[in-house]
Each structure stands twice: as structure tokens, then as C-alpha cells.
Amino acid sequence: MQNLGPVPHPPVGPAAVVWRAASRFAPAISGLNRLAPFVDLGVRLFVASVFFKSGLTKIVNWDSTVALFDNEYAVPLLPPEIAALLGSGVELIFPVLLVLGLGARVSALVLFAFNIIAVISYPDLSAAGLKDHQTWGLLLLITLLHGPGKLSFDHLIGRRLLAR
């Protein structure tokens, strides 16, 4: 049984029941920590694949992509060709960095902002599409706020820098 820390006075009554239950589950709960790097990687892989596939779709038929940015997407201030180029670049470069965990927080921030711009610039987005974008945004926030985890180049580089 794992020690959960010093207790000044042994708990009594309902607190004792909770304390004993927590003491029994503590080893199993701490074992979940071993799964965290794989979950972090899974989150990065999932959300990156969505954006990367979208970027691949854009470059398959460039003329139709430019036409979409000209007619469908309401991107302000940019000519459709530039908006299409920037959008495709973001969707092809930053997901790769996110998967590698290289500059992962910056990549998550860029994709998070891109996700918001996509929702704002496409007025005909369905309710289901909006839910998808909300899910991707939440997953990107996990990496942005929590970091990419141990299975990342950011972690490896950080460990090497700290070892000096």
C-alpha cells in the first residue's frame, strides 16, 4: 500500500473510509502516469492528421483551392492566392512539427489560431462541423497548456539542455 503522506491525526468516520479507499487505489492511479506520454502523443497524432489531410487536399487541385478561397472562405485583407498558400502551408508544416513534438506549443498555438480563423471565415459551417472544430481546438489546448509530453523532441532537447 502506497503512503499518501503524513497524516497529523488519523481520520475518523467518513473521512477514514475515503482515506482507506484512496490508499488502496493510489498504486493503480499512479500507474496511469506511465500512459500519459502515449496519450499525449496520441492527441498530437490525431489532431495533426486532421490538419495535414486538409492541407494535402488543398494541394491536390490548386485551382479549386484558390477558387474556394476566392468564393467560399471570407478571408479578409488577403488575395485568394496568398490566403490559399498560407493556409496550405500552415496545414502541411505545423502538423508535422506537432507530431514530432518540435516547437509543439508554438505549433499548437498556430493551429489553434488557424482553427479559429477557419471557423470565422467559413460562414456555412454546419453544427457538426463546428463541433469538430471545437474538439480540435480543445485537443490543441491540451498540448498548448500541458506541453507535448515525454515522447517529443521538445522533451529530449530540454533534457539535454538541462544536463549541461
Task: Report on this structure.
The chain has 7 helices and no strands. It is elongated, with a radius of gyration of 22 Å. 75% of the residues lie in helices and 0% in strands. The chain has one domain (35-158). The chain is mainly α. It has helices at 14-31, 36-60, 62-71, 80-100, 104-121, 127-146, 153-163.
- State the order of secondary-structure elements, H for helix, E for strand: HHHHHHH
Q: How many helix segments?
A: 7
Summarize model confidence as the mean pLDDT. Answer: 90
Summarize the amount of helix as a percent range.
Answer: over 70%
Strand portion, in percent? under 5%
Which class of secondary structure composition applies to the elements? mainly alpha
Q: Report Rg.
A: 22 Å
> pLDDT under 50 segments (min length 5)?
none
Termini separation comes to 38 Å
Which shape, going by the Cα principal axes?
A: elongated
Chain-wise SSE layout:
Blueprint: H1 14-31, H2 36-60, H3 62-71, H4 80-100, H5 104-121, H6 127-146, H7 153-163
Briefly summarize what is shown.
By secondary structure, this protein is mostly helical.
Structure characteristics:
164 residues, mainly alpha, 7 helices, 75% helix
